Amino acid sequence: MILSQLKGSGFVKSKRGYQGGYTLIPEPAQITVGEVLRFMDREERPLHCIACISKCKCSYDDGCAFSNLWSRVEAAIYRVYDGTTLQDLMDNESAMTVEETG
Question: The whole model's pTM is what?
Answer without folding.
Answer: 0.72
